[in-house]
Design brief:
Blueprint lengths: L1 H15 L12 E4 L3 E2 L6 E5 L2 E4 L3 E8 L10 E8 L2 E12 L4 E12 L5 E2 L16 E3 L8 E4 L11 E7 L2 E7 L6 E2 L16 E5 L4 E10 L2 E9 L9 E2 L9 E2 L5 E2 L7 E3 L2 E4 L13 E4 L2 E3 L5 E3 L26 E3 L9 E8 L7 E8 L4 E5 L4 E5 L2 E3 L4 E18 L20 E6 L17 E16 L1
Parallel strand pairs: 1-31
Antiparallel strand pairs: 2-34, 3-30, 4-29, 5-28, 6-7, 7-8, 8-9, 8-10, 11-12, 12-13, 13-14, 15-16, 16-17, 17-18, 19-22, 20-21, 21-24, 22-23, 24-25, 26-27, 27-28, 29-34, 30-34, 32-33, 32-34
Length: about 475
């Protein structure tokens, strides 16, 4: 009798709460209509014969050769951002004298571009160098070693501080302001952040999602260059710096961090650290050891990060990129026109090369929109099922790519993992091609209004295909 009672009890529980499919409400991803990228496993519940794959940008033209008298072979710490109808670039003008083994000068310079590819140095007539103001120098005071500006997106910022910057001086980070991005002044004479090791490109920006300033700077943890972060409501008073958590990633030197909120999905932080391997030496006639590459990591809170152990940008076949302090990614992601007219806009990032050499320069690299990483399956086929989620909107839009023989199909599952009639795999026409925004349909109907607000899963069947991102509209 007792056994019968147990059997009936278990049967009742399984009927009401299916063990393999029951979803706790706290586990549901409420994504609304925001863009979600597959740069981590946050939205992935299960993959079968599929994988998360890191992609790599394509090298393009040289954007800037630092050959002016006030520039030199150690120019670096580049910042780029979009400002109105132009792109802005800031960088350190610097030259290392190999004969005397010292740095001749350090200055902050400014350039601009209409397309992100062709950059010009405006003659600003602001600061004198070698007896002339005919140059593009905007700052030569404290913090000139790593002066790192941004345009403040805080809607309440003062008119004379539309642009802000950080720069290191005597063991701390100094805060700067400007009404136009060209004429700069100190906000206060004392540093605003003092805990850390600041010989790097330290940066801050207004986080529009979280409603405060966020900052990332270099520190040494157990003798290894690492990243600290803190926040502020007013850019002056900052929280105590905290070490970021990189999970299972190897504890390696990260020289710069180039952290930004991705403009299409600003709830996701992206970082492009320069990874420094100090004990390695590839070019024997270079006097200093150390080689570098660019890596990629993301976070959804600024503290906990997913870092890919593989390189995002390798040094490659140029011997000069295997010299010390090359391959550091500039801070900032720009959207630029593709070189091929029929193609959609692309992302541009910039990396330095030929550091320490005459002809020190900056090169542009391109990437498809959202194309940092993807869920990929080979021609043999694979599947991915999302975590339970709710959405707002009436259409599912995907950023995808297939081969000529590849395909994508999508099925919608209910809260318990069962296919929803009308949105099954056999009702989804095979999707193939390469598009940034493709509306998914079932029997020629994309309307998902009846499912908005309900807990669902998405199931993707992939064949020689990548899914980079999705959103509901």
């Amino acid at each position: 009798m007792f056994i019968l009672f147990v059997i009936l009890t278990l049967f009742f529980c399984f009927m009401i709460f299916p063990l393999s499919a029951y979803t706790e409400r706290d586990d549901v991803k409420e994504i609304g209509s925001r863009l979600e990228l597959f740069v981590d496993d946050w939205l992935i519940q299960d993959m079968d014969r599929a994988e998360l794959r890191l992609h790599h940008p394509t090298p393009k033209e040289i954007s800037m050769t630092f050959d002016k008298p006030w520039e030199g072979n150690t120019c670096g710490y580049v910042t780029v951002f979009h400002d109105g109808d132009k792109f802005c670039m800031y960088y350190r003008g610097s030259n290392y004298d190999w004969d005397n083994k010292n740095v001749n000068h350090q200055l902050t310079c400014y350039a601009e571009s209409e397309d992100g590819k062709n950059w010009v140095r405006p003659e600003l007539n602001l600061i004198e160098f070698n007896g002339s103001k005919k140059n593009n120098i905007v700052w030569d005071g404290v913090g000139h070693h790593n002066f790192t500006p941004f345009k403040d997106a805080n809607p309440n910022c003062a008119p004379d501080a539309r642009y802000k910057a950080l720069g290191s001086h005597e063991g701390g980070l100094m805060a700067f302001k400007s009404p136009d991005g060209l004429n700069w002044s100190l906000i206060q004479p004392e540093p605003v952040i003092t805990e850390g090791a600041f010989d790097s490109q330290n940066l801050a920006f207004w986080d529009s999602v979280r409603g405060h300033y966020v900052e990332f700077h270099r520190g040494f943890r157990d003798g290894v260059r690492d990243i600290m972060t803190c926040t502020s409501e007013d850019f002056i008073n900052w929280t105590e710096p905290q070490w970021i958590d990189q999970g299972d990633a190897p504890h390696q030197h990260l020289y710069t961090n180039a952290t930004t909120a991705y403009y299409r999905a600003p709830h996701i932080y992206m970082s492009f650290p320069g990874r420094f391997m100090p004990s390695r030496k590839k070019i024997e006639d270079h006097p200093y050891p150390g080689v570098s590459d660019g890596v990629f990591m993301t976070s959804r809170d600024g503290l906990h990060w997913h870092r890919w152990p593989e390189a995002f940008v390798r040094p490659g076949l140029q011997p000069e990129r295997w010299w010390q302090r090359n391959n550091y990614t500039a801070w900032g992601i720009l959207t630029t026109k593709a070189d091929i007219p029929s193609m959609p806009d692309e992302l541009s990032i910039y990396l330095n090369e030929h550091y320490y050499i005459d002809g020190n320069r900056l090169r542009r690299f391109s990437l498809r929109i959202d194309g940092f990483a993807s869920v990929y399956a080979p021609f043999a086929g694979g599947e991915m099922i999302t975590e339970p989620l709710t959405f707002e909107g009436k259409e599912l839009v995907i950023n995808y790519s297939t081969s000529a023989a590849g395909s994508v199909k999508v099925e919608i599952l209910d809260e318990n993992g069962a296919p929803i009639p009308g949105f099954t795999m056999d009702k989804c026409p095979e999707i193939f091609g390469d598009e940034i925004e493709k509306v998914v349909e079932w029997e020629n109907d994309p309307d998902l209004s009846s499912l908005a607000g309900k807990v669902i899963h998405l199931k993707f069947a992939l064949k020689d295909a990548d899914i980079y991102s999705l959103r509901f509209k």
